[in-house]
Q: What sequence folds into this?
């Protein structure tokens, strides 16, 4: 717990409501379904291309989300009503509007079938592109097989470049990418090379130095052998402009070392426990670069929470109180984490959090959401609010888990208001 205590810090934690778990009269989370879980590959492979939505449909998705918000407001929101929930699911009208699969009062889903569709939808959410002023000047284009380059490319979303990410597949552009490019009409396309994790990230870092007026304030080193632990780095890079580099368990690759040598006094932050990036790597990084600090958790879920809470010398999100945005991605969906990075550098500017199951919210993540749950005593219009972007379809994160997250992000009244 931080010294900044949320307004509801002394309130007892409420168990999830039936609405949150989607089953009348039960607060127990639904057990994970083997069919719903996605494989946790250490290095994501390009997915088979499916028919993608056209740009007008991607834009229409954003309209549907907005309409869903209006519908929710009309029926009174979620998480706090006293009426008994219906076991029949949402009414037909709200189901057609995408509620709750696309949006609830406190969550919005980008539910594409693959990373290319999610990246295109995120890019258009950040840049609606209905006028010249709403279009980006640049776009970063990365192949789906280059997960490390995709994570590293998050830094190009930071000011002043502000370039969202789009994916190619085997050198070809999926339909979603083509149509997003057509709508975005960027002046420049930065193609990220696929030369291995360390070399690709170093190439992005060098591009960052050419495009940015100032050198980085900090440098991040992530484990190239464990993408799940590295995933939160993309969100921070988009927020801060700090480049992301990679290293192996006991080895500091030459491209990484070379970049550190060019910035010898920049503080270095290593993501992951010593099992992922050893003390030997830390010592070598300190030898050629600046002082090294470690940000780690026991697993990807805990590591993402630790990063969200972390703060040192201007580095880290330092989110230990209410009133923030968050981005929720399934652990192992590393390309989705990269695709979502622009949401951490725009809108509600929130850190990436990870869930390790399609159906069940991890206990540690639930406790974190409770710790930063917003509350008010008198006037809710003057309160702080949380909002969570949910990335991926229901095979990645089920609608019942989304509903629980909505409940945890809901503004709660504290005390009697007097």
A:
């Amino acid at each position: 717990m931080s010294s900044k205590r949320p307004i509801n810090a002394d309130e007892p934690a409420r168990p999830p409501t039936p609405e949150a778990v989607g089953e009348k009269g039960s607060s127990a989370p639904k057990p994970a379904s083997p069919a719903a879980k996605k494989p946790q590959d250490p290095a994501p492979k390009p997915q088979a291309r499916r028919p993608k939505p056209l740009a007008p449909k991607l834009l229409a998705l954003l309209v549907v989300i907005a309409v869903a918000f209006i519908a929710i407001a009309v029926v009174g929101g979620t998480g706090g009503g006293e009426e008994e929930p219906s076991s029949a699911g949402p009414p037909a009208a709200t189901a057609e509007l995408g509620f709750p699969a696309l949006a609830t009062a406190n969550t919005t889903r980008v539910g594409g079938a693959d990373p290319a569709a999610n990246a295109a939808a995120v890019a258009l959410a950040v840049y609606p592109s209905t006028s010249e002023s709403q279009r980006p000047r640049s776009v970063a284009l990365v192949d789906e097989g280059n997960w490390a380059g995709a994570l590293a490319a998050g830094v190009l979303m930071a000011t002043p470049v502000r370039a969202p990410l789009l994916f190619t597949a085997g050198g070809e552009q999926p339909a979603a990418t083509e149509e997003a490019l057509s709508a975005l009409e960027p002046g420049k396309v930065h193609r990220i090379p696929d030369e291995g994790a360390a070399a690709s990230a170093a190439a992005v870092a060098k591009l960052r130095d050419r495009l940015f007026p100032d050198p980085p304030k900090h440098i991040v080193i992530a484990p190239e052998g464990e993408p799940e632990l590295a995933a939160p780095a993309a969100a921070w890079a988009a927020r801060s402009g700090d480049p992301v580099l990679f290293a192996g368990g006991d080895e500091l690759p030459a491209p990484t070392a070379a970049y550190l040598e060019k910035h010898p006094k920049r503080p270095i932050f290593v993501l992951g426990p010593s099992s992922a990036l050893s003390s030997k790597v830390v010592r070598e990084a300190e030898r050629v670069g600046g002082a090294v600090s470690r940000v780690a958790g026991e697993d990807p879920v805990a590591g993402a929470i630790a990063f969200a809470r972390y703060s040192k010398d201007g580095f880290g999100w330092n989110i230990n109180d209410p009133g923030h945005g968050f981005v929720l991605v399934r652990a192992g969906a590393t390309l989705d984490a990269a695709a979502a990075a622009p949401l951490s550098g725009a809108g509600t500017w929130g850190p990436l959090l990870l869930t390790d199951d399609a159906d069940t919210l991890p206990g540690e993540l639930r406790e974190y959401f409770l710790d930063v749950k917003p509350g008010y005593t008198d006037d809710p219009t003057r309160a702080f609010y949380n909002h969570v972007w949910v990335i991926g379809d229901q095979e990645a994160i089920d609608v019942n888990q989304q509903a629980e997250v909505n409940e945890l992000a809901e503004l709660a009244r504290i005390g009697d208001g007097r």
User: Anything to note?
Assistant: The first strand starts at residue 107 and ends at 110. Residues 1-55, 62-96 have pLDDT under 50 and may be disordered. DSSP finds 15 helices and 13 strands in the chain. The chain has one domain: 39-413.
